[in-house]
Design goal:
Mean pLDDT: 86
Number of domains: 2
Structural class: alpha+beta
Order of helices and strands: EEEH
Radius of gyration: 25 Å
Helix content: 25-40%
Oligomer: single chain
Strand order of the largest sheet: 1-2-3
Largest sheet: 3 strands, antiparallel
Shape: rod-shaped
Strand content: 15-25%
Length: 94
């Protein structure tokens, strides 16, 4: 998720009930999420935030997850190929 803007809601600037929010948008699914930063004076805007909808930290995290899935599938294919060769060798022995 990446930072978009900061806005005030719930009343006018001088109203004690007003709150300040930071708006973030997910790179992957486009979900908009708002974080209440009224009482947090040291809010870190740069920190990577996890999307509540898709669970991604950002586009790079999404790409890394897809690459990990591809690697796992390739590993499973190699294991299956090895098992197939072992069974073929055992069949030739009989």
């Amino acid at each position: 998720m990446y930072y978009v803007r900061t806005f005030t809601g719930g009343g006018a600037e001088y109203d004690p009930r007003s709150k300040k929010f930071a708006e973030y948008v997910c790179d992957v699914c486009g979900k908009i999420e708002c974080f209440d930063i009224t009482t947090n004076a040291t809010f870190n805007f740069i920190k990577a935030r996890k999307c509540p909808k898709c669970g991604s930290l950002g586009e790079e995290d999404y790409k890394r997850n897809i690459q990990q899935q591809i690697d796992k599938i390739i590993c499973d294919i190699n294991k299956a190929q090895k098992k197939k060769e072992e069974l073929e060798q055992e069949l030739q022995k009989l």
